[in-house]
Amino acid sequence: MLRYANRTILGSQEEQPSSTLRSTKKVTNNVNQFNQVLGTLLNRLRNDASKGDSRLKFATGNDSYGSFGSIYAFAQCSPDFSQRNCFNCLGDFISEKIPSGSTNNTGAQILGPSCKLRYEDYLFYNDVSSPSSPPPSAPPSGKY
User: Fold this and answer.
1) Distances from the Cα of 143 to the Cαs of 118, 137, 138, 139, 140, in angstroms?
2) One matching Pfam family, short form (predicted)?
């Protein structure tokens, strides 16, 4: 997302303009369990993303709802945000755009100038949960 203004925008929380895109595919089984798992997952990612440093305020994760499927999600804030601003921005999106118990869409994206959320019933991001191995150390130099 590109953001520009004729005033200082660093660290200022702005939720408008925002856009919500929802999947047309619907959850048909265990809707209540889906909504509960989705809410818990998004709130966990909200906490994780808001704790990021000034370079990256981003979190991904997934959870399953019974034997019916999995939910994959991410949360992201502008890296210049304070922990509190990020937490509040994502929280506002969760409570206003994805009200508890009222969604049965299998996916949605909520995009704003300061933060964004996305969830889907498929893996849509690169899973980097397993850090790559460090490169092998160089052999010692010097005389033997």
Assistant:
1) 57, 18, 15, 12, 9
2) Stress-antifung
Which residue bears the tokens 């994760």?
61
Mean predicted confidence (pLDDT) in 109-127: 90
CA 135-53-60 angle, to 5 degrees, is 75
CA distance 81 to 9: 10
- Spatial distance between the Cα atoms of 7 and 55, rounded to a whole number of angstroms: 22
Residue 101 one-letter amino acid: G
In degrees and rounded to multiples of 5, residue 119 shows phi and psi of -140, 150
Which of the four pLDDT bands, split at 50, 70 and 90, describes residue 4?
low
Is the pLDDT reported for residue 97 higher than 80? no
CATH number corresponding to 19-120 = 3.30.430.20
CB-count burial class (<10 Å; 0-12, 13-18, 19+) for 43 = middle
Show me where the domains of the chain are located.
Answer: 19-120
